[in-house]
TrEMBL record:
This is Resolvase/invertase-type recombinase catalytic domain-containing protein. Residues 253-266 have a biased composition (Basic and acidic residues). Belongs to the site-specific recombinase resolvase family. Signal peptide: none annotated. The keyword Coiled coil applies. Residues 252-275 are annotated as: Disordered.
C-alpha cells in the first residue's frame, strides 16, 4: 500500500516530522521480542516512504493482551495525541493498539488533534473520508477472530479430554507427570505419598480441621505440588487438595471458564454454569468415593455457618469485587515489625484486623485491631488536619501560583529528576549483576531484599512518570486556595460511611502509610496497638503529584492510638490533681467520672509514681519484642513459629 499519493505530510513544528510507532506482542510462549523490532522497522519504513525530511521517532514497544483497556501505554498514547505534537501515528494493525471499539476512539482523538493514523495491515489511513468505516470493520474482524479462536480452542481441548484424557493440567501433590505425557493414562502415583495422603484423610476425618493435616504434612516432609507457590502446607491448601476429584480417580475439566470484563478488557474466571466434565482414571485413585465423600460432606456441613451471608437480593456482597478492594485499614495498614499488611478476621473476629504474617506463624504480633473504631479515629484525625489548613493558606497560594507560572520548566525539571533516578536504578542493577557473578555463595535472603528494593523503586518511578505525563498533557487542575481544598475534602469526608469501599479508597489516597506497633503501660497489662501515619492532604488531587513542594506542605506524620486508654491511665491526671489537694483515695473515687473503685484510684496514683521515678512524661513504652510476662501472647512459643519479615522491608523511624 503506497501513501505517496495521499496528502503531503507537513511537520506542524515547521522542521521535523514527529512520528509515533507502537509495537505490541501478547507475551505468549510462541511470540518473540524480535517481532517488536519487526513492527518498529515496518513503521519506520512507511514513514521514510512518506516523507523525505528530518523525522523524530517516538516508539513504544510493550507486552500485553490487546483486549486490556487499562494498559499504561494507552494512556501515554492518548497524552501524545492530546499534546498536539504528533504528526503521524503508525501501528502495524489496529489490534496492536487495542482490540475492540476503543481503537476507534483513539483514532478519533488523533483526528481531532491533527494527527494522521496509518495501519498498513488493515489498510487504514485517517486521511481517507471513509476511515471510520474502515476502523470499525477492522475492530469487528479482530474481535470476531478472538472469539472464534477462543471457542475453537475450548472445544478442541474438551474433545481431547473426553476422547482419550488429553489436555491435562499441572500435577498436584502425589502425582508424577512424565515429560512426554500426552494424557492422564501416562500419569503415575507417587507410591511413597500414599501413606501421607491416606493418613491425612484420617486426621481430617477425626478433627475436620485442615490445619491439623497441614501440620502433619509439614512435620513429615510431604511437600505441596511442584507448581504450588508455597513450600509449606496450610489449612486452606489441605482442603483444596482433598476436594480435588482426581484423588478419587475422576479428574475433571471445565469447572470454571473465563468471561470478559468489558470495563477493563480483562478476562476473569467464573464458575461454569454447565458444570465440569469428568473422566474415570482408576489408576490415579488414592481413595474410593465411599471413603472420602462422607468426610467432605461433614466438612461442608461444619463450615456452612462460616460463609459470608448474602444480601437482600440473594447475591454475595463481594461478588466480582477484587480482593484488593476492601474497607479502610484492610490490606492498607502495615505491621511495623515484619512489614506485612493487616487483614480482616483477626483472631476469629470479623471486624478485627491482624498482621497477615502472624497468621502464617512468621510474626509474633498477633494483637488484633478493631477496624471500624480505627477507621473512625483516623477520620477524626484527617478532619482535624483539614480544619487547620487556613494556617498555611498564604504558602499554599504561593506554591500554586509558582506551579502554574513555572509550568513547562517545572515539568522539565521533574522529568530530568526522574531520568536521573532511572539511571541510578540501572547503575545499581548493573552493580548487583556484577557482584553476583563474582560471588559463588550468595545469601538468598540478601538477594531477595535487594531485588525487592529495586522493584519497589521502579514501581514508584513508573507511578511518578504516569503522573508527569498526565500533568504535561493539559493545564494543571489545582485548588486555588486552602479554602477550596478544604471544601473538596470536607465534601468527601463528611457524612461518609466508614464501612464503604469508597471510604477505603479515599483513605488510601490521603493516608498512604500506616505502620502499626505495640505499646504497654509501664506497670504492665495488655498490649495496645498504636499507629504512625503519614498524612497527605493532597493525595486525592491527581495533579498535586506534579508539585513536590505542594505535597511537602500538605504532608505530615502523626501518631494515632488505636485503643481506648485503660481506666487507671484515663483517670490518672484528675486523680493526681485531687490527691495533691489532700483528698483521700475513697473521696477521689466518688468525685471522678465513671464511678471508678478505690482500687482503680490506687492503681492510677501508683502508675503516676512510677512515671516520676523513671522520669517519663508518658506512661506508655514501646515494645520491640514480645514480653515474657504476657501470657496471652504465645504465638512465638509455638514450634511452627519462625520470624520472617517481608524481603527488603526496613522499619521506619518512630
Amino acid at each position: 500500500m503506497s501513501y505517496r499519493e495521499e496528502n503531503e505530510l507537513k511537520p506542524r513544528n515547521g522542521h521535523t516530522l514527529i512520528v509515533g510507532i507502537l509495537g505490541r506482542i501478547s507475551g505468549c510462549a510462541n511470540q518473540k521480542e524480535l517481532s517488536l523490532d519487526d513492527q518498529v522497522d515496518h513503521g519506520k519504513q512507511i514513514a521514510y516512504e512518506m516523507y523525505d525530511g528530518e523525522i523524530e521517532f517516538r516508539i513504544i514497544t510493550t507486552k500485553g493482551k490487546g483486549e486490556r483497556l487499562d494498559r499504561p501505554e494507552l494512556l501515554k498514547i492518548e497524552n501524545w495525541l492530546n499534546s498536539d505534537e504528533l504528526d503521524l501515528l503508525i501501528v502495524e494493525d489496529l489490534g496492536r493498539l487495542v482490540r475492540g471499539p476503543a481503537a476507534h476512539r483513539l483514532c478519533g482523538i488523533a483526528v481531532d488533534h491533527g494527527t494522521r493514523v496509518i495501519s498498513p495491515n488493515d489498510f487504514i489511513d485517517t486521511n481517507n473520508e471513509n476511515w471510520e468505516d474502515d476502523v470499525l470493520n477492522a475492530c469487528k474482524e479482530h474481535l470476531k477472530h478472538n472469539t472464534h479462536t477462543s471457542l475453537r480452542l475450548k472445544h478442541k481441548l474438551m474433545n481431547r479430554f473426553e476422547k482419550y484424557g488429553g489436555a491435562t493440567p499441572c500435577p498436584i501433590a502425589g502425582y508424577i507427570k512424565p515429560d512426554n505425557a500426552k494424557s492422564y493414562s501416562d500419569w503415575v502415583k507417587k507410591e511413597d505419598a500414599t501413606i501421607f495422603i491416606r493418613e491425612g484423610l484420617q486426621i481430617l476425618k477425626r478433627t475436620l480441621n485442615g490445619e491439623a493435616v497441614a501440620e502433619y504434612f509439614n512435620e513429615n516432609g510431604f511437600s505441596p505440588g511442584p507448581y504450588c507457590s508455597k513450600d509449606q502446607w496450610d489449612g486452606r491448601m489441605v482442603l483444596r487438595f482433598y476436594r480435588n476429584p482426581t484423588l478419587k480417580g475422576f479428574p475433571q475439566r471445565g469447572d470454571k471458564h473465563s468471561i470478559k470484563h468489558h470495563e477493563t478488557g480483562r478476562r476473569i474466571s467464573v464458575r461454569n454454569p454447565n458444570g465440569p466434565r469428568y473422566r474415570e482414571e482408576p489408576h490415579l485413585a488414592f481413595f474410593s468415593p465411599d471413603e472420602i465423600d462422607p468426610v467432605l460432606k461433614a466438612l461442608a456441613e461444619k463450615n456452612a455457618n462460616y460463609k459470608r451471608k448474602k444480601n437482600q437480593n440473594g447475591t454475595d456482597s463481594r461478588h466480582r469485587v477484587p480482593k484488593k478492594r476492601t474497607r479502610a485499614f484492610g490490606q492498607h495498614a502495615t505491621c511495623f515489625y515484619c512489614g506485612f499488611h493487616y487483614v480482616w478476621g483477626g483472631n476469629g473476629m470479623t471486624d478485627n484486623l491482624m498482621c497477615s504474617n502472624s497468621r502464617e506463624w512468621h510474626c509474633w504480633n498477633s494483637v488484633g485491631v478493631n477496624g471500624p473504631e480505627a477507621a473512625q479515629k483516623l477520620l477524626e484525625v484527617v478532619l482535624d488536619s483539614v480544619a487547620t489548613l487556613d494556617e498555611i493558606d498564604s504558602q499554599f497560594r504561593e506554591i500554586v501560583q509558582q506551579t502554574h507560572a513555572g509550568g513547562p520548566e517545572k515539568l522539565l525539571a521533574r522529568e530530568n529528576q526522574l531520568n536521573r533516578e532511572e539511571e541510578e536504578i540501572e547503575r545499581e542493577r548493573a552493580k548487583l549483576k556484577k557482584f553476583f557473578k563474582e560471588i559463588d555463595d550468595i545469601d538468598g535472603d540478601f538477594l531477595s531484599e535487594m531485588l525487592a528494593e529495586l522493584k519497589g523503586r521502579e514501581k514508584q518511578l513508573l507511578l511518578d512518570r504516569r503522573a508527569l505525563e498526565h500533568a504535561r498533557s493539559r493545564q494543571l487542575d489545582l485548588p486555588k486556595s486552602t479554602l477550596e481544598l478544604k471544601g473538596i475534602l470536607q465534601h468527601h469526608l463528611e457524612d461518609v460511611d466508614i464501612h464503604s469501599h469508597e471510604f477505603g479508597d479515599l483513605i488510601r489516597e490521603l493516608v498512604p502509610e500506616i505502620h502499626v506497633y505495640l505499646v504497654r503501660l509501664i506497670d504492665g497489662g495488655h498490649l495496645l496497638p498504636r499507629a504512625k501515619i503519614c498524612l497527605n492532604l493532597a493525595g486525592s488531587i491527581p495533579d498535586a503529584a506534579a508539585s513536590t513542594e505542594l505535597q511537602q506542605l500538605l504532608s505530615r506524620e502523626l501518631t494515632l492510638d488505636l485503643f481506648e486508654p485503660p481506666q487507671r491511665e484515663l483517670i490518672r491526671p484528675e486523680a493526681v490533681r485531687l490527691a495533691a489537694a489532700g483528698l483521700e483515695q475513697r473521696e477521689i473515687a466518688r468525685r471522678l467520672d465513671g464511678n471508678p473503685t478505690q482500687t482503680a484510684v490506687w492503681k492510677a496514683l501508683k502508675l503516676h509514681q512510677q512515671m516520676l521515678e523513671q522520669g517519663l512524661t508518658s506512661p506508655y513504652i514501646f515494645l520491640d519484642e514480645p514480653p515474657d510476662d504476657y501470657k496471652k501472647l504465645r504465638r512465638h512459643k509455638n514450634k511452627k513459629y519462625s520470624f520472617q519479615p517481608k524481603p527488603g522491608y526496613q522499619r521506619p523511624p518512630l
